[in-house]
Design brief:
Length: 222
Amino acid sequence: MRPRVIVHAAVSLDGRIDWLTPDIGQFYELAATWREDATLAGSLTICKPGEPIPSEDPASLAIPEVSAGDPRPILVVPDSTGRVRNWHVLRQAGFWREMVALCSPRTPQEYLDYLAQRHIKAIISGVERVDLAKALEELYEQFGVRVVRVDSGGTLNGVLLRAGLVDEVSVLFQPCLVGGSSARSFFRAPDLTSPDGVIPLRLLKVEEVKGDVAWLRYEIRR
């Protein structure tokens, strides 16, 4: 068994994620619709290259205190290369009760030790890369995760969608057109070269929300 997976994104009317300034409060208020058990975020979303990382303090190595019945979701990040080194910052943000890294057998042992020292759990699956299907099953079995909301850019969304691991797509269409020639959309599938890979959807809901934003929800047709 695996959890229900929802991709939730804010895009321009022409489907781009460049140069947008969406209402972040609105975005996460609507995201609360699903009462997610886990937030699945890409490593590049969580740790943007070039951004300085604040130093750790002794509290970063302490076992986090989590009360019984804590309603916050867990944060899950696929990171088989050991890119993410700002877990302490994410923990201090207070949005999540627990952190889980998705790794593969090729993940450096140094990084696995780094995670263990900071009491961040790791799920190891796959061979060269993380097997996301297996990892989702482990989240279901080990952590009781039933609903996952994906909070990421087009790369992770694309991998999940192409692997048939997404159940619902939620899009907040912002009242703007970006144009340009950038390929940055909320669904990247560079290997898609024919109509055979097009993913059919079934409309679940259309709603106009604050700021002339159109909120569309779709179910993946199996």
